[in-house]
Every structure is written in C-alpha cells, then in structure tokens.
Amino acid sequence: MKIFLLVLTMLTISFNAFALEKLDEIAIKSAMDYGIVASTKNLGSEEFLRPWSVEERNKQNPYRYNESVIIYTPYLLVALEAKNKHSAKQDFFIKDAKKFVAEYDAITVVGAVVNTPVSVKPSSFEVSLLHGKVKIEPYHTDFLTTRQLTIPDSDTNDLDTLK
Predict the structure, then answer these.
(1) Picking from 27-31, 45-49, 87-91, which range would have the lowest pLDDT averaged per residue?
(2) Which of 119, 112, 111 is nearest to 149 (CA)?
(3) How many other β-carbons are positioned within 10 Å of the β-carbon of residue 21?
(4) Nearest to 120 by CA among 142, 141, 151, 148
(5) What pTM was computed for the model?
(6) Per residue in 55-90, is it b (16+ CB within 10 Å) or e — as a string?
(7) How many helical (H) and strand (E) elements, i.e. helices and strands, does the chain have?
C-alpha cells in the first residue's frame, strides 16, 4: 500500500509539472493555433482563459463572483501572444514563439482578480501561494489596477442558487 501511495504521489507531482515544462515545436504550434483560432473567433478574455482559470474550491466566499486566478503556463503564454499578434495582423512564427517563451523559463506567472468589499491599496495587499501547509512567497509581484466590485444583488440573485 505504501508503494502504491508513493507511486501515486510521484505521478501526481510529475503530471502537475508538465504544464510548466519547456514546449517542443508540436506544443508551440498547437498553442499558436489555439491563439489564432481564438483571435479569428473574437473570443473574449474570459472564454479564452477559461481552461487555465482556477475556481475557489469551497465556493463559500460571497465575493467570489467576478474573481479569477489564472495560471499562465508556457502554452498559454504562446497562445496569448499568437492571439495578440494575429489580432494586430502581425507575423508570429515558431522561432518567434520559442524566443518569446524562453523569456519565461523557470518563471511561473499567476494572475488574480480579487473581488473585495472595499478598495484594496497596493500597500495593503499581500500575495502568497499556499500548497497544503507550505506558503510560497513570490520574488516579484505587480499590482496592476484596482476597482471595487460587488456581490450579486440579493433581490435578483439568490446566493444559494449561484453556488
């Protein structure tokens, strides 16, 4: 049983790491195609990023609506760049994608939109990643913008039905 759990744990760790591994040409081409198709279909950011979005696990936070956490994998970064280049009618080749994604080697990019009942100032905002009991502090964060969002109107949306 211990061997089974050890193997299962190792498989889980290795499958989780695949998303952040370097891309080969096939994966780069696939990411570029995904970005170009998204540009052609005029997909909005929410729909385009949905496969990389992570929802709140417990769904207990009443301010969770309009929140998102996105893991910008190398694949997504190439797809996003291809989408932007295609929308701007600019060339973007595999060699360009390789050079572009190489800038993100050994970097995990996480984007978050947080909905709070009050406006948050950059000085009062703390960022850390929790994995079980392990707390990981990022070496760099950017606080891009702030705006106050609200929970759904209780007259038109019952919070229990939105869970």
Answers:
(1) 45-49
(2) 119
(3) 12
(4) 148
(5) 0.68
(6) eeeeeeeeebeebbebbbbbbbbbbbbbbebbeeee
(7) 6, 5
List pLDDT tens digits, range 94-125. Answer: 999 999 999 988 787 888 877 777 777 778 77
Contact 86, 39 (CB under 8 A): yes
Rounded to whole angstroms, the Cα distance separating 152 from 159 reads 7
Distance CA 31, CA 146 (A): 30
CA angle 87, 81, 73 (to 5 degrees): 140
User: 7 — phi, psi (to 5°)?
Assistant: -65, -45
Task: Bin 42: left if φ > 0, else alpha if -120 < ψ < 50, else beta.
Answer: left
| CB 86, CB 36: distance < 8 Å | yes
Answer yes or no: are the C-beta atoms of 22 and 105 closer than 8 Å.
yes
